[in-house]
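Example 3.2
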Amino acid sequence: MGGTGSYTLTLQRQDGASTSLSGITAVAASGTAVRAAIASANPGQTITLTGSGLQASDRVVFTAADNAGSAGPTGLITPSSVAGDGTSLQVVVPNEAVTGMVRLARENAGRMVQIVPTLSDVQTFSGSYHGGLLRLRGTGFVEGSSSVQFGAQTVVDTGPFSGIDVFGLNVENDTAQFTVPSGVPTGPITVSTMGGTSVAFPLTFTGIVATAGSGTPANAGQASANPGQAITLTGSGFDFTTDVVFPTFDSGGNAGERIV
């Protein structure tokens, strides 16, 4: 039995299309959203939902997609903070979130947020670049709805079970893997989804410092080397996972590539 005394009971009538949320305050920390006038964010970013009557007990639901491309709601996300006057709350965008509606769990309607992907690493798993397997790491990739830009050329995901394969290694939707088509350049590489486009992978290649240890190069104004000689590449963003592509010719005179 409850205690005696005065109680306050608040009733709020809402139809299926109404929401306590008036807006979302967020701009993606990295990358460019498709529509600048609509709120955007990266997975893992804290956003602010504004409205009225927001409660400490409220839970937030985002639109999500799994690695088969199936859309649905996320689980119930607990806000990191709720304003005492009930006019705003802050919540972290989950890794599985995709562009779509954000709502309170107690309501059916909400507000739109664009999820912009990020690109943090590029890895190869073959002896050659073209025709080889390329793996991109980041956040916010979407199975069946992602494309990868190599400079002015684009590779489009053709569906959930072909083309670009999106899955999670450390967190949901953090990996995209596919075969590099012939003829595409090595960069700059960006990833696009329905929410926006990532910043280009932060790697630049500006030059080669090398002089052949033996013999005379055809052009003394260009870098030269002998097979087996160490050379220096200059640029930015290099690390121990950076792959270098060399052009090759086999004994039959056929052009190819070798990644080292």
